[in-house]
Write a structure and sequence with these properties.
By secondary structure, the chain is an alpha+beta fold. It contains three helices and ten strands, in the order αββββαβββββαβ. It has one domain: Protein Transport Mog1p, Chain A.
Length: about 170
């Protein structure tokens, strides 16, 4: 199985899980829960509450930024971030993480966390960023995934800039 097929398979699993979650949500929740500036040359779509942003410069299915539906902010932001990331890693069948130490902190606007890692998966290696914000009582999570380290290294700064400007809609 090539890495594009594997990434598509992982993203299909995510979509199936999120469609189950979205089915229990009111129709209004299906719209964007975020305000952001779409990077030049990228496109966006929303399905099952997940916003998928893709760069037009990359082969289909090889690089994506996913904005997951915002959730209520738990009392322990770091535990919520670790639990959300762990659930996604398990659901996507990611293993053997080679991670940098997580970055965590707090700004005047609220807490944040960032986790960068490469993983083994059924479809080949995955290079990922899990980027979370706690804003206005909401937990917001952006997941950036690339099928190659080259694409990750070229486009992760764009995804990080997107995350830094991300606002949770009231």
């Amino acid at each position: 199985m090539n890495s594009t097929t594997g990434l598509c398979k992982v993203l299909s699993r995510l979509a199936a899980l999120l469609m189950l979650v979205a089915a229990s949500m009111p129709a209004a929740a299906q719209q964007s829960g975020y305000r952001y500036t779409l990077p030049a040359g990228w496109t966006s779509s929303i399905e099952a509450g997940v916003e998928t942003l893709t760069p037009g410069t990359e082969p289909a299915g090889t690089v994506q930024a996913l904005l997951l539906p915002a959730k209520p902010l738990a009392s322990d932001f770091n535990a919520q971030f670790d639990a959300e990331r762990g659930t996604l890693e398990a659901h996507w069948g990611l293993s053997a993480p080679q991670a940098t130490p997580p970055q965590r902190g707090r700004t005047a606007a609220g807490p944040y966390a960032a986790h960068f890692a490469s993983y083994a998966s059924e479809g080949g290696p995955r290079y990922m960023s899990f980027l979370a914000l706690g804003r206005q009582g909401q937990f917001a999570l952006l997941v950036f995934v690339a099928a190659s380290d080259d694409a990750f290294n070229r486009l992760a700064p764009v995804a990080t800039q997107l995350w830094q400007g991300l606002q949770v809609a009231p």
